[in-house]
Structures are given as structure tokens and as C-alpha cells.
Amino acid sequence: MVDDTGSDSKATTRRVVIAVLVLLVAIGAVAIWLVRRGGDDSSATTTTSVATTDTSAHPTEPGSSTSTSSATAPADDATATAVWPRSDTARRFEDPVAAARSFAVDFAVFADPVLGEFRQGDSRSGEVEVRPQADGPVTTVFVRQLGDDGSWWVLGSATANIEVTEPAALATIGDPVTLKGTANAFEGTVDVDIRADGRDEPLVKGFVTGRMGEMGPFDSTLSFPSPHGGYGAVVFRTLSAEDGSVWEAAVVRVKFADG
To answer: Between 3.40.640.10, 2.60.40.650, 3.40.50.1110, 2.40.100.10, what CATH number should domain 160-259 receive?
Structure first.
């Protein structure tokens, strides 16, 4: 008689081992399928969000930006002392030279100005030299950081050939306005515009007469349709004798009388 107990025990052990291996393989396959499915679902449901800024209202340039939150800044905030950029637009400048360039081209209407480097004054202000051409006279543009965003604004400009004594910066003016100072210009003529914030066209255009070849006094009045309050600027400019382009510009920030 042969004892088959050992053989049966070994066979049983082999069957158990095989069953365990099959189970492990099955579990591994399911795990791999779940991982792959999870990765597919993740990629299928993931989206990319891109933040955009609408700059269609105004073209930008190096150092400039737009900010819709600043576009409706009230006239009595810190930016009320500034001539440029217009507070009713979204144009703002992160760089002082960019602010000076835009002022020279878009406000003072220089044709193709040559700009110098920014010269620091205090920690938030300074100036930039603007010339109509490389060897032309200097218009000094005064810039300052204003508002919570620290953007750069133009407070006004001055030139050695147009010295304005009236109106003074931030003076309140009424109709008519007194214009006093000295000037050296081609044929002695200095063009004058009175501008109100938020308007594309000047309230009035006129001129004063100094001298040609040397500084000479001017003392005149200019009548204009008052906007009855708000801010603006008086713009004094000399023109090139060659082509009539803007040669120099002195820009004075003013406030209009309420009456």
C-alpha cells in the first residue's frame, strides 16, 4: 500500500501558490488600468486660464500699461496736479521716460523728439530732457509718481526760451487769463493753447510776442470759453523756422474758476 498523503499535500500547495499568483496578477492589472484611467480623466478635464488685459482703447509703448481701475480717477485726487496722461483714460506709465515721450508726442505734439535719460529728483520725482532734434533746444519735462499704483505722470514742462511768470503752476484762472513772461522765438511769436482736461480740442488758440534773438517780455490777455471748474493747462510753444514743427514747449498746470 502506497501513502499518497505527501503527494496530495504538495499538489494542494502548488494549487494555492498558483491561485495566489493569479490573484496578484489580476490585482496588478486592475491597478494599472485605474491609474491610466485616472490620468486620462485628469488630462481631459484640465483647462488653462489666461489672464488678459484690454489695451484696445489706447496703444501701449515700452514702459506703459493700462489700468481700468484708474480710468475714472476723480479730479480731486493726487493726479489732479498732473497734465499727462489724461485721468479719464486707462493709459498709465511704469517708466518716467515713456511718460515724457508720450507727453511730448501726444500732448505737446513734437514731431519726432529725442529724449534724454531720467534724472532723479527726490525719491518719487525727476525730469527728462526732450529735444526736437539731436542739436535742438531743451524742453525739460517734469515727472512724478502719483497714486497708489506708483505710475509716472507729467506735471508740466519748461524751457529756457519761454519763461512764464503768469499764470503760475496750479493757479486758478478765469476769462480772460493774463499771460506774462519773456520769450525768445522765431519772429518773436509763441503759440498759446488753453486746454481743459477730458477734451481733445483746445478751448482757444492764441499767441504772445516776445523777441527774436534775445529774450523779450510779453504781457497779454487771452479770452476763452471757461469750462467753469476743473483742471487744464496753458501750453506755450515755439515753432521751427524751417518746417513749422514744435520746437519747444512750456506747459503750466492750472485750475479753472467755478464762476
So the answer is: 2.60.40.650
